[in-house]
Write a structure and sequence with these properties.
mainly beta; seven-stranded mixed β-sheet; four-stranded antiparallel β-sheet; globular
């Protein structure tokens, strides 16, 4: 059974940092394109970042460029999202997902497997 376990969400002050982890079981992450999405209350799910299966190239939504970094550790079968300079508008439930395709996509419907989500709250 393919599963993700996300962790690392927390309450943090504006300007702070968090690192989210997404550990996979039942499949090998390096064969998949991995995306991070977020959903704030009352808003649609938004693609935040992805890392491709083909060459680990990365894509970021404009609002997080320069602040967030996605990476993968194939030996640990885990993908990370390092989040720096956090803002209140980053508050959301963050999800990781896997797409059985070689290149990045920020469309949620193209992802096949999803984690349960981890809450990130940025507030003073």
């Amino acid at each position: 059974q393919k599963k993700f376990v996300e962790s690392g969400g927390a309450l943090v002050q504006p300007g702070g940092s968090l690192r989210l982890s997404c550990a996979a079981s039942g499949f090998t992450l390096d064969y998949y394109t991995i995306g991070w999405f977020r959903q704030a209350p009352g808003k649609e799910r938004e693609g935040v970042s992805c890392i491709s299966a083909l060459d680990s190239s990365t894509v970021y939504v404009d609002s997080v460029k320069g602040r967030f970094t996605i990476s993968r550790d194939n030996a640990k079968n885990t993908v990370y999202l390092q989040m720096n300079s956090l803002k209140p508008e980053d508050t959301a439930v963050y999800y990781c997902a896997a797409a059985d395709q070689a290149v990045c996509t920020m469309w949620a419907y193209e992802y096949d497997y999803w984690g349960q989500g981890t809450q990130v709250t940025v507030s003073s």
